[in-house]
Amino acid sequence: MSESVMTELKSVSPDIAIFFSRHPTVTNRASFASASSKKAKMAIVFRGEHMKAIPRLYFATAALFALIGMGWGIHMSATTDHTLSPAHGHLNLIGFVMMSVFGAYYALAPKAAAARLALIHYGLSVLTIIVLVPGIVFAINAEGEIMAKAGSVLAVLTMLVFLVTVLRNRAD
Ligand code: HEM
Ligand code: HEM
């Protein structure tokens, strides 16, 4: 990145300047340099790779959960022991299906993806899986229901954050 663009970037936002300097593949530098107002420059930055990282994060995590869930499914089929199938089902449904829907939403709604709430939402989604899935296993094995209950509350919170996000972000 040229010195002049970097200086201009620093005057708009030091944080974004640091981000651009660490991510040399960001594609929008030329249009950034030619944009007229500070608002236009920020819009270009947030339409860039910074924003696209959010849907990618959701989809990569969803694929990871799906791989674990499918491995679990194959193991259940191979052993013909389907006792834990609800845990497998919810790992796939919440971990893969729900997170993929969120990822698709953030890809369609760049403004929502640029908000700090998108990362909090991501953290809550992952935490739901980490608490709920073992929670279902413990509940099925009669080893306590507290984690399943906590996981359910987290799942509902995750969906509430999604509702707030959707309502907050209207089309421009
Ligand atoms: C390699 C892929 C998969 C294998 C081998 C597999 C295998 C299984 C098996 C053996 C059961 C138990 C069936 C029974 O007892 O009647 C099951 C249940 C289930 N699976 Fe999968 N599965 C796979 C992928 C998925 C995916 C991708 C999803 C969702 C997106 C999913 C959702 C479910 C659900 C909802 C149940 C029922 C859970 C319950 O009993 O409450 N599975 N699966
Ligand atoms: C707060 C979150 C959730 C809780 C507490 C919850 C709880 C449950 C429970 C207790 C069952 C019955 C399991 C059994 O028969 O042994 C069930 C079944 C099921 N859930 Fe959920 N669930 C949640 C979220 C979801 C979500 C987000 C999806 C879909 C994306 C989903 C899809 C299913 C399906 C397809 C079944 C039926 C599986 C079958 O036919 O055996 N659940 N869920």
Structural class by secondary-structure content = mainly alpha
| Poorly predicted spans | none
Alpha-carbon distance between the termini?
A: 31 Å
Using the alpha-carbon principal axes, give the shape.
Answer: elongated
Rg over C-alpha atoms, rounded to the nearest angstrom: 21 Å
The overall pLDDT, averaged over residues, is 86
Care to describe what's here?
This protein is elongated. The model has no long low-confidence stretch (mean pLDDT 86). It is mostly helical and 172 residues long. Helix 8 runs antiparallel to helix 9. It has two domains: 44 residues, no CATH class; 118 residues, no CATH class. The protein is built from nine helices and no strands. The chain binds protoporphyrin IX containing FE (2 copies). One protoporphyrin IX containing FE binds next to helix 5 and helix 6.
Q: Can you tag this structure with a few keywords?
A:
172 residues; mainly alpha; 2 domains; binds protoporphyrin IX containing FE
Short summary:
With 172 residues, this protein is mostly helical. The chain has 2 domains: 3-46, no CATH class; 51-168, no CATH class. The chain has 9 helices and no strands.
SSE map:
Blueprint: H1 3-12, H2 14-22, H3 29-34, H4 38-46, H5 49-79, H6 85-108, H7 110-114, H8 116-140, H9 146-168
Helix pairs in contact: 1-2, 5-6, 5-8, 6-8, 8-9
The structure holds protoporphyrin IX containing FE (2 copies).
